[in-house]
């Protein structure tokens, strides 16, 4: 395909190259990630206690722990957590945010090379991170660090695309301006999950989740995504203008709501 054959969206996607190393995609977005990414439902802890035998003595390895959003949920409930994160900016943000939790240990490592000891972990989690892994190498590493009969939990907040008019408009905005949005959506890796656990079975459960945001929060949530244009990109100002209009048209009492399905997959590795 030559340049004349490129659609406007193709031109936007080729204009700015995303970092070749996916671990670096969020380095310039850490502050927005800390402030504006959604948390996870509290019910997850109770569910894992009931379904996976999670206790106060369990050692949790949160792989691709980022700024510590999921790690904090475990820490708030008295669990011991190793947060394994390869991106220095995100790891430092987690260390700052979780400094008052004595049961948190920050680890400079990756899904493919955690640096954790053999058979040391009761429960591995990967939240919003699975689609960035080299899945074959990550699976081998998970199998190495898990205790016998340890659990692997994959989860993420999947934004609902069309349950409200606001969410329909938000999705259209991302399709219009996202640099590689359609390539990195979580739905693209759901078919990989069975292969990751295979030949062991796994189960899946959904939780309702939501985020109520004012205009600053909606902007920050948009800017926290790795695929949206940043300041200096030719589409940045147009995108900001359109998100402001979308907010104005759909806000209720100064807020809009992003609805999510928190999808959680859990099982053992054979």
Task: Write a structural description.
The structure is a single chain. The chain has 270 residues and is α/β, with parallel strands linked by helices. The protein has a single domain (3-267), classed as Vaccinia Virus protein VP39 (Rossmann fold, 3-Layer(aba) Sandwich). Helices cover 38% and strands 22% of the residues. It contains 11 helices and 7 strands. A 7-stranded mixed beta sheet has the order 3-2-1-4-5-7-6. The radius of gyration is 19 Å and the shape is globular. 36% of the residues are buried. Residues 1-20 have low confidence and may be disordered.
Give, in spatial order, the strands making up the sheet with the most strands. 3-2-1-4-5-7-6
Radius of gyration: 19 Å
- Give the end-to-end Cα distance, rounded to a whole number of Å: 45 Å
Shape: globular
- The proportion of residues forming helix, as a percent range, comes to 25-40%
| Low-confidence sequence ranges | 1-20
């Amino acid at each position: 395909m030559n340049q004349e054959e490129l659609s406007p969206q193709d031109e936007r996607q080729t204009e700015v190259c995303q970092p070749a190393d996916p671990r670096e995609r969020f380095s310039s977005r850490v502050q927005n990630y800390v402030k504006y990414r959604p948390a996870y439902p509290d019910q997850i802890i109770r569910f894992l206690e009931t379904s996976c035998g999670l206790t106060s003595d369990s050692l949790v390895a949160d792989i691709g722990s980022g700024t510590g959003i999921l790690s904090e949920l475990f820490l708030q409930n008295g669990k011991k957590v190793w947060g394994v994160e390869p991106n220095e900016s995100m790891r430092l943000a987690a260390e700052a945010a979780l400094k008052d939790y004595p049961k948190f240990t920050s680890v400079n490592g990756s899904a493919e090379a955690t640096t954790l000891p053999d058979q040391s972990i009761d429960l591995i989690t990967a939240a919003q991170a699975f689609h960035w892994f080299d899945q074959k190498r990550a699976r081998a590493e998970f199998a190495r660090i898990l205790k016998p009969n340890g659990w692997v939990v994959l989860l993420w907040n999947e934004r609902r695309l069309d349950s409200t008019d606001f969410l329909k408009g938000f999705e259209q905005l991302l399709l219009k301006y996202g640099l590689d949005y359609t390539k990195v959506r979580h739905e693209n890796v759901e078919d990989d999950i069975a292969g990751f656990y295979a030949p062991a079975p796994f189960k899946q459960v959904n939780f309702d989740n939501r985020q109520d945001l004012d205009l600053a929060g909606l902007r920050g949530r948009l800017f926290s995504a790795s695929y949206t244009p940043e300041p200096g990109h030719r589409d940045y100002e147009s995108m900001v203008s359109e998100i402001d209009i979308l907010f104005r048209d759909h806000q209720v009492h100064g807020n809009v709501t992003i609805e999510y399905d928190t999808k959680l997959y859990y099982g053992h590795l054979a």
